[in-house]
Design brief:
Helix content is 0%, strand content 41%. The chain is mainly β. The chain folds into two domains: 118 residues, no CATH class; 59 residues, no CATH class. Strands 7-8-9-10 form a four-stranded antiparallel beta sheet, with no helix packed on it. InterPro entries: Gal_mutarotase_sf_dom, Glyco_hydro_38_C.
């Protein structure tokens, strides 16, 4: 994993597959602020068009290596915008295939939603992401965004017949690109 001066990921290597996971030239863990002024209903109704406009939060107050040892490394990134403040700790542990990102947000904004973007160069037929009380695995040929929670699983193409092995549902055999 490589973190730049803005506290963004510029490289994430999958050591087992010997390949870069991020899209070439892209940066991961890019926080994006989207306006969510609903056309109808309340602030909890997020219209599909919210994705058309966003502000990339690239300016960091501080980026600091707070732990560096043989078993674990942690980088702390602090960002402020509007009246809000975000503190993130990116931790990579020895022998672990996962990057842990602990995020603490002092949210003082209204009619806005925050997204952490990870432009991944990963092609998978089945994905599983956390939601509040379980997990969801989209099975749609045009599903390109996993915005419900941490991604738990990105699997290779489906079994014969184009069926999701977990649900038995028939899916498209065209692999979507998963981005978060």
């Amino acid at each position: 994993m490589t973190v730049d001066a803005d506290g963004l990921l510029t490289s994430v290597l999958d050591l087992d597959a010997s390949r870069e996971v991020l899209v070439p030239g892209a940066r991961g863990n890019l926080l994006q602020l989207h306006p969510t002024t609903p056309t109808t209903g309340t602030a909890w109704d997020i219209d599909r068009h919210y994705r058309r406009t966003h502000t990339d939060l690239t300016d960091a107050e501080s980026v600091e290596l707070i732990e560096s040892g043989p078993l674990r490394a942690t980088v702390r990134v602090i960002r402020s915008f509007g009246a809000s403040r975000i503190t993130q700790e990116l931790t990579l542990a020895a022998g672990n295939r996962r990057l842990d990102i602990a995020t603490e947000v002092d949210w003082q904004e209204s009619e806005k939603v925050l997204k952490a973007a990870f432009p991944l160069d990963v092609h998978a037929q089945v994905s599983t992401a956390e939601i509040q009380f379980g997990h969801v695995g989209p099975c749609h040929p045009h599903q390109h965004q996993l915005g419900r929670g941490p991604v738990r699983d990105l699997r290779p193409p489906l079994a014969a017949g184009g069926r999701n092995p977990a649900t038995g549902r028939r899916c498209s055999t065209t692999p979507p690109t998963a981005t978060m």
